[in-house]
Amino acid sequence: MLQAPDQSTEGSPTPGVRDAAKAPSHCCPDGHWELSLWQLCRGLGRAGLCQNKALSSATAGRLRLSPGSPALQGTCRATMAQSKGTVVLAYSGGLDTSCILVWLKEQGYDVVAYLANIGQKEDFEAARKKALALGAKKVYIEDVSREFVEKFIWPAVQANALYEDRYLLGTALARPCIARGLVAIAQQEGAQYVAHGATGKGNDQVRFELSCYSLCPKIKVVAPWRLPEFYQRFPGRRELMDYAKKHGIPVPVTPQTPWSMDENLMHISYEAGILENPKNQAPPGLYTKTCDPANSPDTPDVLEIQFERGVPVKVTNTGDGATRSSALELFVYLNDIAGKHGVGRIDIVENRFVGMKSRGIYETPAGTILYHAHLDIEAFTMDREVRKIKQGLSLKFSELVYNGFWHSPECEFLRECIGRSQEPVVGTVRLSVFKGQLYILGRESPGSLYNQELVSMNVQGDYEPADATGFININSLRLKEYHRLRSKVTVKQDE
Hints:
43% of the residues lie in helices and 19% in strands. It is built from 17 helices and 18 strands. The protein has a 6-stranded mixed β-sheet, sandwiched between helices. It has a 5-stranded antiparallel β-sheet with strand order 14-13-12-17-18, covered by helices on one side. Strands 10-11-16-15 form a 4-stranded antiparallel β-sheet, with no helix packed on it.
């Protein structure tokens, strides 16, 4: 549900002020301008020249100013700056988006802040107050964590989505989810623009914007980190921090710990700062979602995870009997269990869509458990040849999601195909979580293709061992012909 939008009280009209705001300014015959005191102070306030809130909310009085008056020029500049319209900013409360919010106001935009709750540990009330204090016209806070799990994480689990063999796509899955809310608020507010704080070198700019253009083709995107007037002014994070200090923007980042963090329900990522040197080991205090495996409990947690159509529907802890069955509660519980055992840490160098390699450190506790559990139950229940085809689809799906094409027709098609492949993927996987590792202990399914009698070394069943001779002969024919030809070529080369 969307939280009711909040509006800043700065410059808000008290009884009678709204009428005063509408009172027109006009030019006198002698070339002087006459305008209401309210208009003057509101204009000066927007120009950053008047900070007296009591004066800004004055309801009476008109001033007569000469054309060259600095006050009039400031008011005119502020009035002209207001003409750019409304922009909905994907706001996080961090360094980049806080500075961008203030900068957008400097450029003349009315800023509406949109903050999506996708499971990150955040003081949302503090973020709301911060955005309003920085000048946001409205703040929308939307809890999309359940939608994130059901509409984005579950399809990735069904697909066994994995980019470049290791990355479980935590950030890539979150961006189209956030973009949905961003575009919806822009349409609700009648805004022509949306904005984000993604850098001009990364993947997120592509993910956000491709999603926004897919959902609302007429939307316009303001990407400050691709605008020379922004990135030349802020060539590094220290310049951003100086700007934040100048404008009274509170930020959690300090020069001593300048790495960037991005968290959601699926994972948390760390990059930049000292992590940009790929040989540098991550500092011990960096990790926040998982504990050090060396300090994890000395007793494992044994879990049973039940799947239907490839989607986890229930988890049971065999030790204490705890169960979770709703999508969000199940995922949060697995995050807690895996996190306390130090499961889900990776440190990788990956290939960004824009063409460069980057180093990222990720913690994906619940996602790691579900990836391995689903992989196991799928192999247990899915036909071999179908699974081969599905593996190819999963590879392409992972690439599309990583590159930002979630809302593309090809990705929608793949989700349909993968969903169809999951119909027989029903059953329960039992596993142990312990000291940074998870171990599959067993599995069962009413639709398993595993035939214990057929595969048994002690029972012949319906399988005739003698039939294997013909099978081997047929398959060896191709190999014999290949090596026969190779032998002829080798003889000719030796002559």
